[in-house]
Design goal:
Layout lengths: L4 E6 L3 H11 L6 E6 L2 H9 L12 E4 L8 H10 L8 E5 L4 H10 L3 E4 L4 H18 L5 E3 L5 E3 L1
Parallel strand pairs: 1-2, 1-3, 3-4, 4-5
Antiparallel strand pairs: 6-7
Length: about 150
């Protein structure tokens, strides 16, 4: 049996959380999406603090930049300077298309930067592309791969 792949979504817009949930429901893999609405909760989740003490470690993080309190740039910096967290791929998934944000995120260690598409069809295509690349082509730590890109959590 293939276990679900743990994914952390850091997103403050409930409509975007719902859209991601719906879109990844069509993935070939079985995702277990954990959503938090701000940077403080994202870091607590990743460090397994407080109410997140028993959560599984995600194999990937979807990170919005424009968050209340601790913003996505600060979260990214914390993740990529933390010895225990830095190997988790961070997909910056944001409305920003600013060159300054792109450059800063890559300098902080983002694994990729994706500007959220506006139309539903394009949004769905982009999120499917994330699965195709990050969970089919790329090999991630914490996943045991089988033939034909099937895998299970170790």
């Amino acid at each position: 049996m293939i276990n679900p792949v743990e994914i952390l979504l850091v997103e403050d817009d409930p409509a975007d959380v719902d859209l991601i949930r719906e879109t990844i429901g069509d993935w070939r893999i079985v995702p277990n999406l954990h959503a938090v609405e701000d940077g403080r909760n994202a870091l607590a989740f990743l460090r397994r603090e407080g109410p997140y003490a028993e959560v599984p470690r995600p194999v990937m993080i979807f990170l919005d930049l424009n968050l209340p309190g601790i913003d996505g740039r600060q979260v990214l910096a914390e993740i990529k300077t933390d010895h225990d967290l830095r190997q988790i791929p961070v997909v910056v998934f944001t409305t920003s298309q600013e060159e300054e944000d792109i450059e800063r995120c890559y300098s902080l260690g983002a694994n990729c930067f994706i500007s959220k598409p506006v139309g539903l069809a394009e949004y769905t295509r982009v999120v499917k592309g994330i699965e195709d690349f990050w969970l089919t082509i790329v090999r991630l730590p914490g996943l045991k791969y089988r033939r034909h890109s099937q895998y299970r959590v170790q």
